[in-house]
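#struct-pred
JK: can someone run the complex with tetrahydrodeoxyuridine? inputs below
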Amino acid sequence: MYPEELCKLAIEAMGHAYVPYSGYKVGAALLCADGAVYQGCNIENAAYSPTNCAERTAFFKAVYDGHRDFTAIAVCGGKDGVIAGAFPPCGVCRQVMREFCKDDFLIYLVNGQGYETVTLAQLLPYGFRAGEHMSANG
Ligand code: THU
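RT: done, structure tokens with the ligand placed:
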């Protein structure tokens, strides 16, 4: 699947966001190694901290279905669903990515014009996984 297609699926996923508190709609599309794609949106909560980000929604859906090998994720977001620039994953989502993905996992950050590509190694170097304490998970 081309990155542009994954980005389109992230934009579509943004439309599913439940955001009565912030108004920031976020969408994600996660590409599994076998070609399956899982979409996710952010789901907010009146108590704020139970809010689930779009990226984690996509990961948790995929893992529930038995997927553990991932190639890339496209992410987009913006106030009222208007994409004004890249919407990079939060620290908690980066850590969830690190649980399942290696340094070369690709993150496509959808911006107004197209997308920027970064790797997990760039977003979260020196990642932590059980049994690999403080290693870079290369
Ligand atoms: N959000 C995401 O969905 N993904 C991120 O990586 C950053 C933040 C959501 C959480 C909240 O619903 C809204 O964006 C504003 O922070």
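RT: quick notes.
The chain is about 25% helix and 25% strand.
The longest strand covers residues 70-79.
JK: thanks, will look after standup
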